Automatic annotation (TrEMBL):
It comes from Leptonychotes weddellii (Weddell seal). It comes from the Eukaryota. GO terms for biological process: actin cytoskeleton organization. Residues 219-249 have a biased composition (Low complexity). It holds the Pfam family DUF1899. Keywords: Actin-binding, Cytoplasm, Repeat, WD repeat. This is Coronin. One of its GO terms (molecular function) is actin binding. Belongs to the WD repeat coronin family. Residues 256-321 form the DUF1899 domain. It is found in: Cytoplasm.
Length: 715
């Protein structure tokens, strides 16, 4: 038994000073002179983390993995050559947190699976399988020698007395299964209950090739990813990433780890530069941290500028490109901008809140802002302190809610340009407010540590109160799960950003679930899509956008792939659903505000059959640009529901009605030239190639046709 030392060791830097690094000793059985392989960079694995070794003594395969990395390295231990031969590298889908080797008794030997590794990620356990590309029609004894069984060789008393018996080896041939079992004397035998189901019949002595063996664990046939350039005919096989179907192994993992989101493989990407708005100058970054900082509808974007008079630039989304170097035409508010919002039912009306406690309503011309506007369409006065946030009613036209530092929420009738309702009960700064999807209730989160739900038409006092986030640095609230839950993003007492999910019917009982994300100074700004139950979360100055699917029951939060940008953004908002390209399975489109530009970001789901309309991803969506009620009707107590429309393009068939494809056998391309051939076949191929190179031996030689002199001319 020898030790192989790899990793960092005592080495010299350029100045000749010794420095100490990490050193690992790995025990390799069957390698009598493996210590000669000791080297700090023998394997050329430049990693700042400790490498975790996993050795399979039967096949001689060595797996190297580092925590926090996204690659698996496979080497073959060759004791005769005193070297480690590289086999392949496997790129993982997520960061590795731990790794374990599955016993060889659980391998799918009839599928030529020689190794299986379990990768522990942040939210799942992913099997990574290694296959030899051979025809899976027979048992290959050269790939699967006898392995150690599961019956101990001796008991504790015999080992203490000096016994060194080895564990008896068993064959991996399916005809020799099932293996003998072992039960420890420390575990009392369990008596089967009388009402239990009768045990299943024992498997036959021989198992057909196409049938799964029950002793193979979760050994579903995974797709093989082989490469002809690898020194050995081994290739890693990852779990399914299509997001459409689920293999038996994934179903067994889901039973252990819980459900997973069908959007877990979502891909976010910045669209082409031709759709960007660039050369944007003088952004105002002094809006409240809980404000989105800018707003957009299907036509325009309103961005506050850092200049005197609270100027707001209005940019046309249909006219991307570079903005002129000259000053842009703006809206002159006369006071610093704190929040702004487009009217969902009037794409030409913009509401702007200012530090002078006034709300200004601006009318942007249909052709766009061509000149500086100094006179708003209307000015709403009533608050005594500066405005903090503005929210339009989701169903009723001309209804606007505003919060202020005067600790009140006021609901305005924009048609009459008057205040109609006033909500009270807050004892500190109101961080955020949000309308319910049906427009009957209003939720707020306050700095005094309470989450409140109001019924504005029922009275000025809150209908419910519950404990909010512990931290007092900022928070946002949004209605989710068809209005049955409230999602609050805030901070805990240690300044960690977290998500809290509350039931709307029982706020006093506290949150249903709390999810901690990271430690950062900015408040998480949620953008919720009610059609898919997805929420996008990011903060001003962040480079990452978190994506979660929300459920009203456990596990509540299903993590999906996040979007990461190379540089921080100043704002990130969700555009209307109608802006998505459903033919490319684009389920969300956002706008990313940078220091000098506006970039559209598309979130898409990888699907195979894109020629069909993915109706499981695109349910009927609300007709959000048409009001259901008037302001007077809603104030009078009327309620309504939005009208739904389909996003299915003309001429596309829903994927739920698409004909099923015949299952095709997946054969790796490299199997065509990596198949094992006999020596006789190799000799025949070599002989045929030589004959073809030399040509036909019966053809006349060039010298036979040479015309020389006659014999009598020699005299």
């Amino acid at each position: 038994m020898q030790l192989l030392q790899l990793g960092n060791h005592w080495d010299h830097n350029e100045e000749g000073t010794l420095f100490e690094g990490e050193c690992q000793h790995w025990e390799l059985s069957g390698c009598p002179q493996a210590q000669r392989l000791a080297s700090s960079r023998q394997l050329a694995l430049f990693s700042l983390r400790s490498l975790l070794p996993l050795l399979d003594p039967d096949s001689g395969l060595l797996i190297l993995a580092g925590k926090g990395e996204s690659q698996l390295y496979c080497y073959e231990v060759a004791p005769q050559q005193l070297a480690l031969s590289p086999v392949t590298q496997c790129l993982l889908e997520s960061v590795l947190r731990g790794v374990a080797l599955v016993p060889r008794r659980a391998l799918a030997v009839m599928g030529c699976e020689v190794l299986r590794v379990l990768q522990l990620s942040d939210a799942a356990i992913v099997p990574v399988s290694y296959h030899v590309p051979r025809k899976a029609v027979e048992f290959h004894e050269d790939l699967f020698p006898d392995t150690a069984g599961c019956v101990p060789a001796s008991d504790p008393h015999a080992w203490w007395a000096g016994s060194n018996q080895q564990v008896q080896k068993v064959s991996l041939h399916p005809a020799h299964r099932p293996y003998p079992s072992f039960t420890s004397c420390l575990v009392p035998p369990t008596e089967p209950s009388s009402d239990a189901a009768p045990p299943a019949a024992a498997p036959p002595a021989e198992t057909p090739v196409g049938d799964a063996d029950p002793s193979e664990g979760f050994s579903s046939p995974l797709s093989s990813l082989t490469s002809p350039s690898t020194p050995s005919s081994l290739g890693p096989s990852l779990s399914s990433t299509s997001g459409i179907s689920t293999s038996p192994s994934q179903r067994s993992l889901q039973s252990l780890l819980g459900p997973s989101s069908k959007f877990r493989h979502a891909q976010g990407a910045v669209l082409h530069r031709d759709s960007h708005i660039t050369n944007l100058k003088g952004l105002n970054l002094t809006t409240p941290g809980e404000s989105d900082g800018f707003c957009a509808n299907q036509l325009r974007v309103a961005v506050p500028l850092l200049s005197n008079g609270g100027q707001v630039a209005v940019l046309e989304l249909q006219k991307p490109g570079r903005l002129p170097d000259t000053a842009l035409p703006t809206l002159q508010n006369g006071a610093a901008v704190t929040d702004l919002a487009w009217d969902p039912f009037d794409p030409y009306r913009l509401a702007v809140g200012g530090e002078d406690a006034r709300i200004r309503l601006w009318r942007v011309p249909p052709e766009g802002l061509q000149e500086v506007l100094t006179t708003p369409e209307a000015v709403l006065t009533g608050h005594t302190e500066k405005i903090y946030s503005l929210r339009f009613h989701p169903l009723a036209a001309d209804v606007l809610a505003s919060s202020s530092y005067d600790l009140t929420i006021r609901i305005w009738d924009l048609q009459a340009r008057a205040e109609r309702l006033r909500l009270q009960g807050h004892r500190d700064q109101i961080f955020s407010l949000a309308w319910s999807p049906d427009g009957r209730h209003l939720a707020t989160v306050c700095r005094d540590g309470y989450l409140r739900v109001y019924e504005p038409r029922g009275g000025p006092e809150p209908l419910q109160e519950g404990p909010g986030p512990e931290g007092a640095r900022g928070a946002r609230v949004v209605w989710v799960c068809d209005g049955h839950c409230l999602l609050v993003s805030g901070f805990d007492s240690r300044s960690e950003r977290q998500l809290l999910l509350y039931p709307t019917e029982a706020l006093a009982g506290g949150p249903l679930a709390v999810l901690g994300l990271d430690v950062a100074p900015s408040t998480l700004l949620p953008s919720y899509d009610p059609d898919t139950s997805l929420v996008l979360l990011t903060g001003k100055g962040d480079t990452r956008v978190f994506l979660y699917e929300l459920l009203p029951e456990a596990p509540f939060f299903l993590e999906c792939n996040s979007f990461t940008s190379p540089d921080p953004h100043k704002g990130f908002i969700l555009l209307p659903k109608t802006e998505c390209d459903v033919r490319e399975v684009e389920f969300a489109r956002c706008l990313r505000l940078r220091q000098t530009s506006l970039e559209p970001v598309a979130f898409r789901l990888p699907r195979v059959r894109k020629e069909f309309f993915q109706d499981d991803v695109f349910p009927d969506t609300a007709l959000s640009w048409e009001p259901v009620l008037s302001a007077s009707a809603w104030l009078g107590g009327a309620n309504g529901q939005p009208r739904l429309i389909s996003l299915q393009p003309a001429g596309m068939t829903p994927v739920s009605q698409a004909p099923r494809e015949a299952p095709a056998r997946r054969v790796p391309p490299s199997a065509l030239y990596l198949e094992e051939k006999s020596d006789q076949q190799k000799k025949e191929e070599l002989l045929n190639a030589m004959v073809a190179k030399l040509g036909n031996r019966e053809d006349p030689l060039p010298q036979d046709s040479f015309e020389g002199v006659d014999e009598d001319e020699w005299d």
